[in-house]
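Structure (tokenized):
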């Protein structure tokens, strides 16, 4: 059943194969403070610090990012135990938050570390969104193109135009009504093609896995390891092989995309982020071996 659906979604390209060699893990962060899975760095967008570490993520900021707010390193926090209040039994968590501070919005973000960057393959995170059940803000996991083919920013510019997004909008009813099923938004850029995917659960009440398989110009989005929707973006097939970064952020955007962040923090908590490079199949989830 799952194999049939995956084959249908990608138009005949096999997304799930058996008997294949072990996939190559490019990024695998479990956020345990003991494993140094994440660390702060200098202003990467403008200073470009060349960290040749492939199994970690870095905290963004401090800097201002358009309407998204002021990226604030202190709002990206790692802990050994689950900080969401859900008592998840795992180990190693990253909490990203956004909050109003007077007349401005404070936001938080992490990005994959090391050169070269990442591109095609399978990306997945395990996360819970808005466990506080507060209205406002956008909570995400995504891949975005760097402006330099070596995976570095270009002349201090931001990223783009290619982008593959998984986003939760906390101004939707599910955010403040945990008894209601929720939605996740899948978007591709630069075409701005968006799909609102209904979920059989509320994403604020428990940890779930969200991911995407990128093969040529085709993206197959997954929820808990199962393909749920496929989209195309012509430019993706011409993306540099190491031309971007895996990222996650929690921010406050326009009123029509997540809404304005309330005075109290809204957060997403991530238990794992992983990228398998160059694969053409959805990789079954397994706890990281340390």
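Design, position by position:
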């Amino acid at each position: 059943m799952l194999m049939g659906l995956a084959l249908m979604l990608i138009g005949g390209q096999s997304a799930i194969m058996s008997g294949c060699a072990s996939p190559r893990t490019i990024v695998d962060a479990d956020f345990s403070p003991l494993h140094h899975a994440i660390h702060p760095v200098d202003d990467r967008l403008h200073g470009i610090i060349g960290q040749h570490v492939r199994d970690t993520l870095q905290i963004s900021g401090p800097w201002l990012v358009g309407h998204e707010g002021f990226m604030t390193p202190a709002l990206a926090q790692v802990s050994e135990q689950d900080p969401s209040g859900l008592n998840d039994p795992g180990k190693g968590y990253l909490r990203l938050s956004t909050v109003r501070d007077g007349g401005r919005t404070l936001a938080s973000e992490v990005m994959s570390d090391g050169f070269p960057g990442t591109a095609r393959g399978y990306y997945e995170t395990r996360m819970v969104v808005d466990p506080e059940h507060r209205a406002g803000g956008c909570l995400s996991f995504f891949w975005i193109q760097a402006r330099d083919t070596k995976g570095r920013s270009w002349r201090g510019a931001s990223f783009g135009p290619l982008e593959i997004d998984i986003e939760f909008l906390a101004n939707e009813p599910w955010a403040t009504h945990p008894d209601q099923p929720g939605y996740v938004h899948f978007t591709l850029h630069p075409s701005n093609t968006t799909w609102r995917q209904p979920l059989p659960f509320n994403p604020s009440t428990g940890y779930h896995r969200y991911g995407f398989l990128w093969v040529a110009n085709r993206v197959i989005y997954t929820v808990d390891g199962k393909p749920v929707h496929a989209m195309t973006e012509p430019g993706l097939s011409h993306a540099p092989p190491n031309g971007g970064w895996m990222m996650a952020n929690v921010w406050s955007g326009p009123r029509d995309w997540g809404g304005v962040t309330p005075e109290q923090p809204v957060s997403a908590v991530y238990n794992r982020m992983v990228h398998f490079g160059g694969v053409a199949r959805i990789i079954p989830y397994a706890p990281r071996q340390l």
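Reviewer-requested clarification: The first helix runs from residue 2 to 9. Confidence is low (pLDDT under 50) at residues 1-8, 10-19, 43-54.
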